[in-house]
Amino acid sequence: MTYSFDKVIDRHGTDSLKYDLAAKRGLPEDILPLWVADMDFPSPPEVLEALVDKSLHGIFGYSDAINDDYYNALADWYASRFGWHLSPKWLVKTPGVVFAVCTAIRALTNEGDSVLIQQPVYHPFAGSVLANDRKLVVNELVYNDGKYSIDFDDFEDKIVKNNVKLFILCSPHNPVGRVWTKDELAAMGEICLKHGIKVVADEIHADFVYPGYRHHVFETVRPEFSDITVTCTAPTKTFNLAGLQISNVFISNADMRKLFKQELERTGYSQPNIMGLVACRAAYKYGAQWLDDLIRYLVSNLDLLRDFLRHELPSIRLVEPEGTYLVWLDFRALGIPDKELNDLIVHKAGLWLNAGTMFGAGGEGFQRMNIGCPAAILREALERLKKAFL
């Protein structure tokens, strides 16, 4: 590989939520964090160089992507990786995907309207729906024989019975790791079209797909889907840029885009973070080889995790991920209640994971682990688990 990801970098004392928040949350200071979805790898060197160049310029006034370089970097990336051909007029920049989801909820629904999500799912979805005074409706994913699937009958039934107006799609899915097939996306989209449902597609993990699987941009699955979809993307997960707060939202339907922009204006948000713009452009222009090497490294981390569990902790089952660097672990065979399980992981194993219950219905007995770290950190985490549960 061109790039190495083995170096362990001490992130303590860097204002890192992942590493510096433990004491404030009542957790042991020496806890090993594999929870929040940022990686322990430096961003691509080309991104760092672009940020240094901008810093040395020394002026950080109001900024935006004035010329075509920014849009072209995005367009080239999505065309080459996903066969998705963008138009510059579709692009709306926001500080983050959750911000964009909340904006879309307010722009496309009214207070009291029903919004559908598929739990267990990224927990800010439910929080965003409820915080904006909408009704939360859940189409729970079906877990059977180590794999998750969609109950399409329940999906449509929930839409009809609750008069759902908006569906928030997580694709690839966080935390269960599914990369939805084209047929699965088509089935959901056809139901949404049938009942006049708008779709917010969170595709922030689109670049993390393991060999043998392929991510399909939801709105490209059927031409009609583009007319009902807000597609949320960002370089922040892909290139470890979350703190720079930049995301790119694409809305091809002019009426929906107008409503979204109007709601964006009501938030008081205007020009984006200049460093976010610089990093995003550099990442999409120069980061392809770095990402390809990173995915190979994540595959080796996944192999390490799988083999360790199989031989050392067979009662903990890996839900095989098809995408993302977040793995979903099934602890249910241990027969330990969730509160006790969480306590053992924190205080006996000394690990900070995400409890499955935070992801909603179906999360009981599961934990989410971030494997976006050097292999040495992952090995230490696994040895800590072994000592706690054997």
Strands, helices and their partners?
Elements lengths: L16 H4 L11 E2 L11 H13 L11 H14 L8 E4 L2 H12 L5 E4 L6 H8 L3 E4 L3 E3 L2 E3 L2 H11 L1 E7 L11 H13 L3 E5 L15 H4 L7 E5 L13 E4 L3 H14 L6 H13 L1 H25 L4 E3 L6 E5 L7 H11 L2 E2 L1 E2 L10 E5 L4 H15 L1
Parallel strand pairs: 1-13, 3-4, 3-7, 7-8, 8-9
Antiparallel strand pairs: 2-10, 5-6, 9-10, 11-12, 12-15, 14-15
Task: Provide a compact summary of the structure.
This protein has about 400 residues and is of the alpha/beta class. It is about 40% helix and about 15% strand.
Mind explaining what this structure looks like?
By secondary structure, the chain is of the alpha/beta class. It has 2 domains: 17-43 and 288-389, Aspartate Aminotransferase, domain 1 (Alpha-Beta Complex); 49-286, Aspartate Aminotransferase, domain 2 (3-Layer(aba) Sandwich), CATH 3.40.640.10. Helices cover 40% and strands 15% of the residues. The chain has 13 helices and 15 strands. It has a 7-stranded mixed beta sheet with strand order 2-10-9-8-7-3-4, with helices on both faces. Strands 11-12-15-14 form a 4-stranded antiparallel beta sheet, covered by helices on one side. A two-stranded parallel sheet has the order 1-13. Helix 7 links the parallel strand 7 (164-170) and strand 8. Helix 11 (288-312) packs parallel to helix 13 (375-389).
